[in-house]
């Protein structure tokens, strides 16, 4: 059987599985329950926070049953077709490689036809900001007054590149960077399911390195598992990620506290041989000093 990377294997298949975007999930769930479904949605935010995944889940909720429902079965035939990009009624394209006016004209023609086996014909355009101005203009009229069965879902990392005329015709949802705590909890859950043992400190290092992206976190976790094998230790995780060990950071601050010049020189020599960039060293030191300040604050 073909191996599936963690970011694909554990991709959310329901609104409850989407991490760190409760404000988006709750609004979409309520709109479906109240039957207040818009004709266009635009999801914006950093990379790897669940924009395209949420678009697919919304498409599943709209099309997986006889009527829109948040309690759809993710294992149903239609839901699986949508998740795998095989559904005839859910067209998913990449705005970077389908950015011209001809592609948009084709989409306008497609959405005119009634869906074959579902309730809605749904167009998902990822990285929609890559479309040309002419393509955006060709989309305006159809987006404002689509046929009753037509829905548009856009995703973008650069909302400022999308014309205001497009944004004003959609319901806009801003996705946030995911907190270290939420990423850590998700990684901990996945590792338990995968039967892989790892320390909490290693999980924290991976979560912090991901910089708010769940997809990045799972890619980094995949890299760590490949590097460490069966034995995942804090030292090996630090080596694989190019992260400075906490012991070295404490040696740095101890040298400052004691005003020990020789110890400081020794620490700087070790830092210079780690292969970590100067910018990353400064980021690690900044986070370390911030944690020390937080630790000194009493309740």
How does the SSE layout of this entry go?
Elements: H1 6-9, H2 22-33, E1 40-44, H3 51-63, H4 77-83, E2 90-94, H5 101-112, E3 121-126, H6 133-144, E4 150-156, H7 164-167, E5 171-174, H8 180-194, H9 200-210, H10 214-228, H11 234-241, H12 246-258, H13 261-272, H14 278-295
Parallel strand pairs: 1-4, 1-5, 2-3, 3-4
Account of the protein in words:
The protein is an alpha/beta fold. The protein is built from 14 helices and 5 strands. The chain has helices at residues 6-9, 22-33, 51-63, 77-83, 101-112, 133-144, 164-167, 180-194, 200-210, 214-228, 234-241, 246-258, 261-272, 278-295, and strands spanning 40-44, 90-94, 121-126, 150-156, 171-174. A 5-stranded parallel sheet has the order 2-3-4-1-5. Helix 6 links the parallel strand 3 and strand 4 (150-156).
